[in-house]
Amino acid sequence: MECITHLVYEKPDLLYAKDDNGWTPLIYAIHHNSSLATRELLNVKLSIGYEIMTQDDISTTAIHIAARLGHCETMEVLINKCLGCSEFIDSKGRNILHVAVESNKTKVIEFIFQDESFTSLINQKDNSGNTPTHLLVASNFEMMEMVIDSRVDIHALNDENRTPLDIASSDEKRETLIKGIAMDRNIHNEKSSLSPNSISIDWYQKELEAKAKNSEAYFKIVDNLVLVATLIATASFAAAFTAPGGFDSSNGSKQGKPFLLKEKAFQAFVVSNAIAFSCACSVLLGHVYLLIHRNRYSEADDTEQKSIDDRIAL
């Protein structure tokens, strides 16, 4: 440490010197999780802890690099020395919790959730509208156990209009965990006044039940339509062999032709009957196609279920 202190005091410009990879002494100190070296460098020039730097074509900061590497000790030094740096975001709009989640750094996630002063980071959105919880439920189930917390907003919408609940519902285990978040919030609310953002486990269960009922209603409508289509197909098929007015049974070139063939009303009947038969057959074929998806509807995620519902509506 004495060597570092002597060098930077004698040649302050070394603090900003970069190697071929663009790394400064501070980045090296963070990379090696040297909290002592990081503290010494910041003692000489505190402003280097606030500098914007580029890594992998992303504008980021020292605190983001420490979070990505999972170096909690170095993060603590930076947070204590550089006030407000914990609220920095990178060029993708990500805070340190976003970065920790994407890098699967469980210790950093625990560190942030255990400190009440970092509450604002929990529901902050990046440039895609995703909160850290969106990223958690989409990637790593084990880490989600850390976010069973009443502060988590499971109603937050990203730019695709999806909440963490929407993403979590594609996996049974994740659903269970989201229920755990709701339960934790329920318990929390018993100890304090209810907030506008509160949610209970009963509400979540009702949402799932309502969703299931809507799906059943859709399928009942389809079943009724198929019954009607079957009747129309049967009637139109039979009508083709029992033409109004009958057929000419006399010997000759007109044998077997309908008596009313040249009548406009009969011609309209033939066209209408053919259209009815074709449409009914199309509905029946479509139902056969939907049956394939219907069998796996309950196992599909929200996007697939919505796609199936749209096909039914069409």
UniProtKB/TrEMBL annotation:
This is Ankyrin repeat-containing protein. The lineage of its organism: Eukaryota, Viridiplantae, Streptophyta, Embryophyta, Tracheophyta. Signal peptide: none annotated. PANTHER family: ANKYRIN REPEAT-CONTAINING PROTEIN ITN1-LIKE ISOFORM X1, PROTEIN PHOSPHATASE 1 REGULATORY SUBUNIT. Keywords: ANK repeat, Membrane, Repeat, Transmembrane, Transmembrane helix. GO terms for cellular component: plasma membrane. SMART domains: ANK (SM00248). The chain crosses the membrane at residues 221-245, 265-292. Its main location: membrane. Pfam families: Ank_2, PGG. It is found in: Membrane.
